[in-house]
Amino acid sequence: MSKSCAWENADIIQKPFTWRQKDVSKTKSTSTIDDFILPFSGKLSAENRWVQLAKIIPWDEIEKEYVFMFPSDCVNVAKPVRMALGSLIIQARCGYTDRETVQQITENPNLQYFIGLKEYQLAKPFTPVALVKFRKRFNAKRLAKINELIIINVNRNLKIVDTMLQQENADMGLLNNRQQKLLETIRILAEQQTRMYKTKTHSVEDRIVNLHQPHVRPIVRGKAGAAVEFGAKVAISLEKGYSRIEKLSWDPFNEAITLQESVERYRECNDCYPEVILADRIYRTEIT
To answer: In sequence order, which ranges of 95-127 are alpha helices (DSSP H)?
Structure first.
């Protein structure tokens, strides 16, 4: 989660302080979108990705585990663990700099809810310098333990759901077809994430990246603007102004292998091979 930051010009003032631990028994990080106060009528959307992500992170358990890292001094109240960890998650997922992370959180009520604020505020919740301190506290070892805690909670919740479904009459139809497919997708996703965590890898066969579109696969492109793309991959040929789809797949494939098939398909349609084939360098292989 480490990111380069622009804080060289910031004035850091050293203040004497006394270490003391917060009383976590009186602090609850978990809140609902109905509790979040907006400066205008309405409420946050339950479909927002940050609202949904906030639901699956066991904030209170993480708070109890790591509150010792955020002691309060006599002048300033320590930042909550949820604010620190939540801001680092936002920064890592969006690729923001430290200053941009603070700016995005300041302007977005969904992000403010994600880091645990009770209501929308115009003031910055913290400075870019604070992110540097957050990263020092949440090192790789501690983040790995948090990932394990999240996986344990997800698997525990799945077992609770399965137990509830088994206790009810199967003929009652508690879940419709769409909900059953979604639950099965969640089971597969949890199993994939558990496997990658235990094997310390970042890839798995048929990896699910979208709960509602489990057929979508990540395609590593290595481009400067988009290292990974999502969606169907298509190989297209162009003949006399007409485009023909040679292959379409949601799974990654090497487009060079489609050249021979495309040429043979051309021969079947025209009773001859093409005089000239114009193709990218990737098609110039020993096989083709």
So the answer is: 98-107, 109-114
Decide the pairing of beta strands 218-220 and 228-230. antiparallel
Crossing angle, helix 81-94 and helix 98-107, to 10 degrees? 110
Tell me the backbone φ, ψ of residue 42, rounded to 5 degrees.
110, -170
DSSP state of 119: B
Distance CA 140, CA 196 (A): 16
Pick the most confident of 10-14, 97-101, 194-198.
Answer: 97-101
Per-residue pLDDT tens over the stretch 164-216: 888 766 555 678 888 889 899 999 998 998 888 888 888 888 888 888 888 88
Task: Strands of the chain (E only): list them.
Answer: 218-220, 228-230, 233-239, 242-249
For the record, the structure tokens of 33 come out as 């979108």
pLDDT (tens digit per residue) in 170-179: 555 678 888 8
Query: Can you state the percent helix, strand and coil of the chain, rounding each to 5?
Result: 45, 10, 45
Q: How far apart are the first and last CA of the chain?
A: 43
Residue 82 identity (one-letter amino acid): R
**pTM more than 0.70:** no
**What are the angstrom distances between the C-alpha of 45 and each of 38, 81, 222?**
12, 24, 34
- Integer Rg of the chain from CA: 26
